Automatic annotation (TrEMBL):
Gene3D superfamilies: Phage gp6-like head-tail connector protein
Source organism, top-level taxon: Bacteria
Entry-linked Pfam families: Phage_connect_1
Record-given protein name: Phage gp6-like head-tail connector protein
Amino acid sequence: MFELQLDELKEYLRIDGSEEDVTLALFVAAAEEYLAEAGVPEDKHGTARYKLAVMLYCSINYEHRDPSEKIEKFNFSLESLILQLKTG
């Protein structure tokens, strides 16, 4: 079963402290839902690529939290990982 520790995500995002823990946990849950709805099979949840895809999703959403900011296109790395997880 997949489990991303918040400490791992905070290290990836270079966040110190626990002020953002609730927001980060929400991003992780949203990433898992996003990947499931994108068609990533459940048997891929324990893989390093799945974990990286969750971290990338969280990173994109953490860095672009301003609702007035428009994200022109989703991250190519995340799209590539999703495709690999769906077909590989």
